[in-house]
Amino acid sequence: MTAPSQAEGSGLRLIIGGVLAVGSVFTAVFGFVTLIRTLEAGGYGTPAMRQALLILGSAGAGLGAGVATIIWDISKRYENK
């Protein structure tokens, strides 16, 4: 038996990508709820609105990182040898 090479997929990498993607979806829902509450309270242009947009931005970045990690792992699993 040999150790897995760099060209093989990693279960840990796949789990990290999945956790990032799912966590980002929950963060996005939280960000949208925060944004809606802030706008309903008349808080347009306030620090609370900027905070809600920052939460949504970080959710998008996390989702992008999660999807990229999953694609990276899948490409490593199925690349031609």
Task: Give a brief rundown of this model.
With 81 residues, the protein is mainly alpha-helical. The protein has 2 helices and no strands.
Largest sheet: none
Oligomer: single chain
Q: Could you tell me the radius of gyration in angstroms? A: 18 Å
The residue fraction in helices comes out at: over 70%
Question: How many DSSP helices?
Answer: 2
User: Gap between N and C termini, in Å?
Assistant: 18 Å
What is the structural class?
A: mainly alpha
- Mean pLDDT across the residues is 88
- Indicate the low-confidence ranges by residue numbers: none
Form type: rod-shaped
**Into which percentage range does the β-strand content fall?**
under 5%
H-E string: HH
Number of strands: 0
Task: Write out key terms for the chains shown.
mainly alpha
Textual characterization of the structure:
The chain is mostly helical and 81 residues long. It has a domain at 23-73. It is 77% helix and 0% strand. The protein has helices at residues 11-40, 47-78. Helix 1 packs antiparallel against helix 2 (47-78). It is rod-shaped, with a radius of gyration of 18 Å. The relative contact order is 0.22.
Topology record:
Elements: H1 11-40, H2 47-78
Helix pairs in contact: 1-2
